[in-house]
Amino acid sequence: METQKFEIISAKSNIDWVGRKVTGAHNGTIAIKEGSLNFADGQLADGKFTIDTTSIKILDVTDPATNAQFAGHLASDDFFNSDNYPEAQFVITAISKESNDTYRIIGNLTIKGITHPVSFDAQVTTTADIVSATGKVVVDRTKYGMRFRSGNFFKDLGDTLIYNDFDLNVNITAKAV
Questions:
Q1: What's the distance, Cα to Cα, between the start and end of the chain in Å?
Q2: What confidence tier does 128 reach under pLDDT thresholds 50, 70, 90?
Q3: Are strands 43-58 and 130-140 parallel, antiparallel or unpaired?
Q4: CB 135, CB 103: distance < 8 Å
Q5: The domain over range 3-176 is classified in CATH as 2.40.100.10
Q6: Would you kindly state where each structural domain of the chain is located, as residue ranges?
Q7: Cα dihedral angle (109, 110, 115, 116), rounded to 10 degrees?
């Protein structure tokens, strides 16, 4: 069995996030700090990556003061608590190949020291020395202690309610080592 390891290129990898509320949505990016994908006989076999929670950026709020306030709130204990948990991690626990370049990925996502399983489909393409992978992970923030303005925990929020699920659109580029 031939195995090959690919190290994630942080500068060419990131996560686009989308969070929704009753009155609209916000979006931004968060950096992938490091990680790797491993292949066995040309098929994705396992992998993991570390997310830099201190790198959260908001792209749709253009006023600098409002953007800074919002970024500070996302970094606070109401959300990612980036001072105490500067990293989140995803570790693949199971993989099934769905088609030529589509895999069903199951893994453990750890945010704020809390781990839960997540699953998603990923498009994975390989050349001799480069892997590109994309996938959309839907995360229930309340499972990770992010209860701020959640309808599951607070009543009468009206149009200040923030939906529990947020999307992480993961884009990874990795190079053979």
A1: 17
A2: confident
A3: unpaired
A4: no
A5: no
A6: 3-176
A7: -20
